């Protein structure tokens, strides 16, 4: 058998619950020339799904990259919603092989998302599966399996993290209060979120009220007699919930602030004095009604501060606030966001998910937007290339990515599946039509012809969580990019991934500095391009 090519995973981007690891740069000299970005480095995509070994049928729900078989390569774990997740061994060059015996110890149904992270602090990634509650008509226990092989016993009950009445949509592992703890955040649809302080040697504690000021599951009125997994009508009208959540450090303190969707429809939570509190003036009112369905952080205008792209879906019910649903780019400055009013970014209607990724390796944040229409059971992937200072254009020929695809899209993952230094796209297709028109996944290989790159992986000291670290890269003396290090999120699923820097035509990197979330920094100089770089916390 031919040797397996090493898989270099790059920055992955979220969709469905999308992005972390936001891209950033500086204005002026820090931006790559717009005309060069628009002409010399236009990505070309090829649909390699038929030869990839990945499923082209069946509903998918979330995806993570994790070394499942201990060979040092990132494999693909796909959520299949009504079935046990499926594992695919990475063979390199965008090829995978199903691992039929993987997951012998997993018994879940109505699976929505998977969290891969070191939950118990032993240095080995664990699996936490988030499940729904049968459309609110029953209960569903989340599952926790130590290690990545899927054959260990479920410890969720003994850890107290089953959340049986939650209609699970996603999970994250963060140190929310920056106190050294591992906090497991579980967000649910129409049911209360959870924030567990993980203590494997003792009882868990739900910190959602303490940390977020939201009602805990114990506060919610749950109709247990009927076996329903959601608050009663009165409680739902009174209460608040979070079904999507994306972290980002908006004030440079190394702690997570958040974009949340749920009830209220959309808001920014800022962490201060040990609690994440709503920052009501942060977003313009027109961005909140109607409610967006997804968002993505990124520095689109190159000023080094996080900006926000919001995607809006279809109207599925009459509303007093009915208005044309058009996506919005909100430019951030000192934690406040204003509408960029760019019609090219509006992309009216039928939005599902979005992600940011440097698809052309020019050092700027590009956009990937998924759209679906239930009337036709088809989806489309829209690509918007950043030509500088937040001005984005659709490339003239984005086929086959931009073509209509059977099935309703759920999320998107951008990663370097063929280890050539540019980011490929994996589109997850959820619900399928009544005649089985679609489903499965679509894998699009990026055949970019130029542009250097760097992937940066951070290694913690004493197995600490490093979420919130910042990595700054300087090339050509004054061109600077900055990335924040957060979990990669894909339709509620989350996992650690290296940061990807597109370097354009730069032949070397002058310096790279990591600002650690606990304080202090590490600097390296004279770094070669086109490599995977590991930086260890001192």
Outline of the structure:
This protein is mainly beta and 538 residues long.
**Fraction of residues in H or I helices:** under 10%
What profile does the largest beta sheet have? 5 strands, antiparallel
What is the beta-strand fraction? 35-45%
Distance between the termini: 41 Å
Mean pLDDT: 81
Oligomer: single chain
Structural class: mainly beta
Count of beta strands: 38
Per DSSP, the total helix count is 5
Unreliable runs? 1-40, 218-238, 316-323
Using the CA coordinates, give the radius of gyration.
21 Å
The gross shape turns out to be globular
The largest beta-sheet arranges its strands as 1-32-31-36-37
Keywords:
five-stranded antiparallel beta sheet, 5% helix, globular, 5 helices, single chain, 38% strand, mainly beta, disordered N terminus, 538 residues
Description:
With 538 residues, this protein is mostly beta strands. Helices cover 5% and strands 38% of the residues. The strands form ten sheets. The protein has a five-stranded antiparallel β-sheet, with no helix packed on it. Strands 22, 23, 24, 25 and 26 form a five-stranded antiparallel β-sheet that branches. It is globular. The protein starts with 22 loop residues before the first strand and ends with a strand.
């Amino acid at each position: 058998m031919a040797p397996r090519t090493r898989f270099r995973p790059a920055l992955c981007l979220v969709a469905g619950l999308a992005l972390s690891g936001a891209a950033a740069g500086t204005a002026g000299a820090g931006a790559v020339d717009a005309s060069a970005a628009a002409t010399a480095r236009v990505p070309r995509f090829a649909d390699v799904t038929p030869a990839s070994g990945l499923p082209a049928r069946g509903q998918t729900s979330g995806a993570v990259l994790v070394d499942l078989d201990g060979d040092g390569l990132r494999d693909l774990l796909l959520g299949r919603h009504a079935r046990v997740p499926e594992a695919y061994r990475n063979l390199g060059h965008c090829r995978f092989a199903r691992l039929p015996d993987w997951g012998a110890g997993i018994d879940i149904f109505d699976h929505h998302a998977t969290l891969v992270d070191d939950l118990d602090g032993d240095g080995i990634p664990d699996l936490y599966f988030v499940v729904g509650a049968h459309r609110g008509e029953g209960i569903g226990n989340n599952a926790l399996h130590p290690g990545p092989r899927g054959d260990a016993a479920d410890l969720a009950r003994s850890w107290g993290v089953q959340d049986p009445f939650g209609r699970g949509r996603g999970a994250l592992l963060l140190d929310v209060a920056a106190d050294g703890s591992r906090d497991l955040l579980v967000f649910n649809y129409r049911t209360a979120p959870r924030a567990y302080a993980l203590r494997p040697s003792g009882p868990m504690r739900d910190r959602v009220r303490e940390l977020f000021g939201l009602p805990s599951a114990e506060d919610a009125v749950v109709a247990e007699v009927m076996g329903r997994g959601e608050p009663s009508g009165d409680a739902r009208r009174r209460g608040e919930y979070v079904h999507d959540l994306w972290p980002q450090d908006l004030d440079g303190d190394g702690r997570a602030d958040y974009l949340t969707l749920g009830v209220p429809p959309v808001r920014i939570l800022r962490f201060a004095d040990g609690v994440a509190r709503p920052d009501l003036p942060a977003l313009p009112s027109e961005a909140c009604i109607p409610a967006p369905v997804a968002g993505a952080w990124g520095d689109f205008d190159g000023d080094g501060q996080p900006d926000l792209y919001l995607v809006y879906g279809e109207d599925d019910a009459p509303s007093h606030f009915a208005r044309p649903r058009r996506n919005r780019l909100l430019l951030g400055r000192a934690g406040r966001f204003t509408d960029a009013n760019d019609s090219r970014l509006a992309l009216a209607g039928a939005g599902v998910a979005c992600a940011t990724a440097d698809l052309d390796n020019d050092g700027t944040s590009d956009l990937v937007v998924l759209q679906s229409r239930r009337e036709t059971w088809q989806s489309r992937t829209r690509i918007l290339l950043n030509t500088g200072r937040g001005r984005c254009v659709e490339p003239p020929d984005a086929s086959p990515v931009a073509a209509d695809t059977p099935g309703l899209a759920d999320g998107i993952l951008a990663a370097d599946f063929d280890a050539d230094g540019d980011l490929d796209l994996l589109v997850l297709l959820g619900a399928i039509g009544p005649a089985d028109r679609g489903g499965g996944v679509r894998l699009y290989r990026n055949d970019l012809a130029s542009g250097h790159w760097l992937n940066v992986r951070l290694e913690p000291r004493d197995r600490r969580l490093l979420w919130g670290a910042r990595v700054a890269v300087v090339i050509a003396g004054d061109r600077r990019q900055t990335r924040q290090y957060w979990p990669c999120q894909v339709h509620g699923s989350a996992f650690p991934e290296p940061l990807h820097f597109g370097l354009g035509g730069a032949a070397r990197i002058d310096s790279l500095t990591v600002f650690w979330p606990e304080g202090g920094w590490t600097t390296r100089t004279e770094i070669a391009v086109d490599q995977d770089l590991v930086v260890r916390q001192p």
